[in-house]
Design goal:
It is a single chain. The chain is α+β, with helices and mostly antiparallel strands. It folds into two domains: 3-117; 161-316, no CATH class. The protein has 13 helices and six strands. Strands 2-3-4-1-5-6 form a six-stranded antiparallel sheet. Strand 5 (99-106) and strand 6 form a beta hairpin. Helix 9 packs across helix 11 (275-295).
């Protein structure tokens, strides 16, 4: 019986071993990407991106066995694989090549059928130094993946759209437009119209004193930034961008040095890191943390699906 597979590469350093999840989903090490896959991608992928794909050693796989060969392969696997990839970003937004290759496996091995190529999901300074293992992929992935599938299968718009805003924001290379996308995702998720609603609801849900950035996987340093330090400024920057106003030099375009809880300066980047860049990363990780917290809890998913109930819960977060 043939098996159909969709694979997508995982960015280097984000994963360090193979993992097996439920429903035919796994992460597997690949010593070398086949020439057939690279030849399939060559006409539609830029050379530098193709080189990066060729160098990928860990790949996310979704597979399904069928009783008989299908004329066009298993078409249902592409959206399932995309949702699996979204679940990875909700474990930790590490970025992705966002290239999905469909294969057929039989006694002769695996042969590529076709591919779907979307704009790359860009990572951030903190995302590039984070590890999926350090962020609990073994414990969290299946629940998050099931939650993402449920959100799209049931048409829960208040969850679907923030996930799509997350995806679009990671595809945008511009700091300000990406911040707008992530803040809009938070805005929709928490039904926040005004700044006061936004600050109290996001802070109340995540905890005002909580760290929302993951530790650096190499140095184990924990960024010192807390929810209460930046949540109001995220809303202010979102408003400036949304209304087409000039972004003030102070504080948004001023250089910013990330520090750890022990006071050490975190690694510099190859580009100027500004306070606006910190707010982009903060909005990104607050959005992924919030979605993860909801998608791993069936009771919360039911609450979000019931607008009246979710609005009442959001109002409770504003109480002292």
């Amino acid at each position: 019986m043939p098996t159909y597979v969709v694979v997508t590469p995982i960015k280097p350093n984000a994963i360090n071993k193979e993992h097996t999840f439920s429903n035919g989903t796994s992460i597997r090490h690949l010593r070398q990407v086949s020439k057939d896959i690279l030849d399939l991608l060559r006409p539609v992928v830029a050379p530098h991106r193709l080189d990066e794909i060729a160098g990928a050693r860990y790949w996310l796989r979704v597979e399904r066995e069928t009783e008989h060969p299908l004329p066009n392969g298993d078409q249902t696997l592409f959206p399932i694989a995309v949702n699996a990839s979204r679940a990875l970003q909700l474990v930790c937004p590490i970025g992705a090549k966002h290239v999905f290759i469909r294969l057929q496996r039989d006694v002769g091995g695996e042969s590529p059928i076709n591919a779907k190529v979307w704009d790359e999901l860009h990572s951030t300074l903190i995302g590039r130094t984070a590890s999926l293992e350090d962020n609990g992929i073994d414990e969290a992935f299946d629940q998050i993946y099931a939650g993402v599938q449920q959100a799209f299968d049931d048409g829960i718009v208040r969850l679907e759209n923030p996930i799509l805003f997350l995806e679009r924001g990671m595809q945008i290379g511009n700091v300000y437009l990406a911040t707008l996308m992530f803040a809009m995702g938070l805005d929709m998720l928490f039904m926040a119209v005004k700044k006061d609603n936004f600050v109290k609801r996001v802070s109340g849900f995540l905890g005002p004193d909580s760290f929302f950035f993951p530790p650096n996987q190499f140095t184990k340093a924990q960024p010192i930034t807390r929810v209460k330090d930046v949540v109001a400024d995220i809303f202010d920057l979102r408003n400036l961008i949304a209304h087409g106003q000039e972004i003030p030099q102070k504080p948004f375009r001023q250089p910013y040095q990330l520090t750890s809880t022990s006071g050490e300066a975190l690694p510099d980047t190859y580009y100027p890191y500004t306070y606006a860049e910190l707010l982009r990363e903060s909005a990104l990780f607050m959005l992924t943390n919030s979605l993860r917290k909801i998608l791993m809890d069936q009771n919360r998913i039911r609450a979000v699906k019931d607008t009246k109930r979710w609005r009442a819960e959001m109002k409770q977060l504003e109480s002292p």
